[in-house]
Amino acid sequence: MATTESEALDGAREMKPTGSHQLKPPIPEAEVRAALERVIASDAFQRSPQLQRFLRFVVEEVWAGRSDRLKEYVVGTEVFGRPANYDPKLDSLVRVEAHRLRTALEAYYQAEGHEDPVFIELIKGSYVPSFRE
To answer: 69: burial class by Cβ within 10 Å (0-12, 13-18, 19+)?
Structure first.
């Protein structure tokens, strides 16, 4: 399907397909980076350096084109300092922290960040963040 790009007067980006579906271009990295910094600077995240490291790591891995590396073992060893013989089946730290991260993000966007232009999400069952406007 062919698409044409248009720029709205308010600066919003959108792709207008010639068919019936609406497509949007990816959110620019600078906007996602600003969103990450706002989240990390928030009250909830300032109290948890572990959640800051976790969120920053997964977002930066996506920017670097390494989202395929975002597995429990890699997060455990690179974010939480688990040893090379770390077994995620025996140590639930990453799963527990991922749950805490999802909960903290949800709380942030329901309160402090409710008007943020970009939302960072970590879908259950994955360590790859997604970004939406």
So the answer is: middle
Quote the Cα angle for 36-41-39, to 5°: 35
Q: What are phi and psi of 49, to 5 degrees?
A: -60, -30
Alpha carbon distance 113, 34 (integer Å): 12
Cβ-Cβ contacts under 8 Å for 58 (sequence gap 6 or more): 70, 75, 122, 127, 128, 129
What is the DSSP-derived secondary structure letter of residue 38?
A: H
3-class secondary-structure state, position 129: strand
Task: Count Cα neighbours of 78 within 13 Å in the Cβ-side half-sphere.
Answer: 14
Each residue's pLDDT, cut to its tens digit, for the chain (133 residues) gives: 444 433 333 333 333 334 444 555 689 999 999 999 999 999 889 999 999 999 999 999 999 999 999 999 999 999 999 999 999 999 999 999 999 999 999 999 999 999 999 999 999 999 999 999 9
CB atoms within 10 A of CB 131: 17
